[in-house]
UniProtKB/TrEMBL annotation:
Gene source species: Biomaibacter acetigenes
NCBIfam families according to UniProt: GntG_guanitoxin, PRK10534.1
Enzyme class: lyase
UniProt-recorded name of the protein: Low-specificity L-threonine aldolase
UniProt family annotation: Belongs to the threonine aldolase family.
N6-(pyridoxal phosphate)lysine: modified positions: K201
One Gene Ontology CC term in the entry: cytosol
Molecular function terms from GO: L-allo-threonine aldolase activity
Keyword Iron-sulfur: no
Cofactor(s) listed: pyridoxal 5'-phosphate
Length: 344
């Protein structure tokens, strides 16, 4: 059976153009800085994000963790939103790898209020850790792919700098945010000292993420990447797909957003299902299925039998993600399948 896979945009496969670009890629040893395709991808990424330099990393997780290491010293404290990816899905790396502790703030639709951030910054006191970093996630995954409003980003960046603190943006889906806001991605990236974004999600590359920042930041980060085993040799094969991702796939994300909205509107009419439509901004739809009297994993199992894959756990909630390869008729089929299950 052919599945309609709505679990994540990470399931996207490389396009034919990517496969051809990979086959033909000119490569060299990137640890020596001699891979022309990696160098081209890094230059392109730095330019698009409006930063001095960029570095290819194996995954978003590696990128975030390397950035935290580069911005902080052990014993310091960093401020994050309580449901962010770095806290939830990175295996406790903050403490293990960087030796920092986390100060968590509850956000609204994933956005931390700048006043709350300012109140959480530690004083210059012998007892307290130094606050050295603020992390923002844009779009915010667990909040439903929500976009952090520009004025919040700007105020966060300004107050961080008043306090001598850096800002890291987990921008795994920053191109979805830029598509939603209809601005060039550098307009968003300018409110962070470092940004990580993924090539391997909605942008369809098979492997890889990018970290951008100042020349000085990236040169220190390269050393941490090497320490973490992320110094790759003929990585240009991966970069070749990444270049297609940046050139082509960043321009088609509105299609995924339109499909997500269609999906959310359809699901929201089903009795027992509730969706906060304010959170449906990009390609993620989080459904409260409390009224169906089943857990997310139960609904996910029953949808699987109908050829549809979604992510759900022990809570009465499921997540749908639209992406390249999901068409309008797939969305319609998914809505019909949920309708049938809700009626049973
Ligand atoms: C997917 C994701 C990451 C990590 O990316 P991987 O490549 O899966 O390690 C980081 N942050 C957010 C918000 C994500 O959605």
């Amino acid at each position: 059976m052919e599945f309609i896979d709505l679990r994540s945009d990470t399931v996207t496969l490389p396009t034919q153009e990517m496969r051809e670009a990979m086959y033909k890629a000119e490569v060299g040893d990137d640890v020596y800085g001699e891979d022309p395709t990696i160098n081209k991808l890094e230059e392109m990424a730095a330019d698009m994000l409006g930063k001095e330099d960029a570095m290819f990393v194996t995954s978003g997780t590696q990128g975030n963790q390397v950035c935290v290491m580069t911005h902080t010293r052990p014993g310091e404290e960093i401020i994050l939103e309580e449901k962010c990816h770095i806290i939830t899905y990175e295996v406790g790396g903050l403490g293990y790898l960087s030796g920092v502790q986390a100060r968590l703030i509850k956000g609204k639709h994933g956005a931390m209020n700048p006043e709350d951030i300012e109140a959480a910054i530690r004083e210059d006191d012998i007892h307290q850790p130094r606050t050295s970093l603020i992390c923002v996630e844009n779009t915010h995954n667990r909040a439903g792919g929500t976009v952090i409003p520009m004025d919040i980003l700007r105020r966060t960046y300004e107050l961080a700098h008043e306090h001598g603190i850096s800002v890291h943006m987990d921008g795994a889906r920053i191109f979805n945010a830029a598509t939603y806001l209809k601005v060039p991605v550098k307009e968003i990236a300018k409110y962070a000292d470092s940004v990580m974004f993924c090539l391997s999600k909605g942008l369809c590359a098979p492997v890889g993420s990018i970290v951008v920042g100042s020349k000085e930041f990236i040169s220190r980060a390269r050393k941490f990447r090497k320490m973490m085993g992320g110094g790759l040799r003929q990585a240009g094969f991966l970069a070749a797909a990444g270049i297609v991702a940046l050139e082509k796939m960043t321009k088609r994300l509105q299609e995924d957003h339109d499909n997500a909205r269609l999906l959310a509107e359809g699901l929201n009419t089903i009795p027992g299902i509730k969706i906060d439509m304010d959170t449906v901004q990009t390609n993620i739809v989080i459904c409260d299925i409390g009224g169906l009297n089943m857990t997310g994993s139960e609904l996910s199992r029953r949808l699987f039998e109908k050829g549809i894959r979604v992510n759900g756990g022990n809570s009465p909630s499921v997540r749908f993600v639209t992406h390249h390869g999901i068409e309008k008729q797939d969305v319609e089929k998914a809505i019909e399948a949920v309708k049938l299950i809700a009626k049973e």
